[in-house]
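Annual report, structural modelling task.

Input specification for the nickel (II) ion complex:
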Amino acid sequence: MPENALLEKLLSKLWEDYYDLNPSAKKIHDLFEAQGEQVVNDHIALRTFNHPRLGIENLAGFFKAYGYQEKQDYHFKEKKLYAKHYENNDENLPKIFISELLLEKMSPFTQSAIEQFVLEIPREALHKETFLFSGRQWKASHQTYLKLAAESEYASWVYAHGFRPNHFTVSINSLRKLTDIEKLNQFIQSHGFSLNTSGGAIKGTPAEFLVQSSTMAEPVEMKFQDGTFKIPGCYYEFAKRYPMASGKLYQGFVASSADKIFESTNRL
Ligand code: NI
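The model returned the following structure:
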């Protein structure tokens, strides 16, 4: 199989895993298609920890094997996160945004909880690209989930869901009709989906070359050792890019906007 076909296969596996967990993302995707739109994915976001076995570089390696290159990095001081984004020479392929929680900034409780579950992941699993959608490979309790969430919503999300796409993103630039983000937001809301309004429904400005919005992650039933509980799943994002002085569309991200978008998986 040519390299691109293998990459397409990986990307569709990631998409399947994402919408299996989040039927609402699939519903929104289908709503666009019912409008005669062809949905193009702007980027896929993945979450991890800066643990030596599964930091950004470990996950990025699977994409670099298909020609992805590191482009830019981002700091999120308050949320104690760091991120990088990767692009493929083929501009039709989605960008990959990978963030990691800075473990050294976490409490001893969170550090040891994470250290423990990482030990439960079979070593060989870490070296296969299927790791990107392997889900949770450790025993988890709702009690620990809540303790982690009290310190970092991000840590609790990864603890509960494991390794899988956090969100996909509709490229507004590729839409034919819903090209205005305000109208797009109204369209989404009119179909019963709620938007992340932290810092306003629309994040960023044309002057920053990127405006974004996202749904709030819908609750999903999650089995823990101490019972089944509803917790936030994943969200769907919408991004519109603007041309820079060169005439090319900006391909990076805006840290202050991404900072608020992370909150789309917060517990309400
Ligand atoms: Ni995003």
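The chain has one domain: 3-265.
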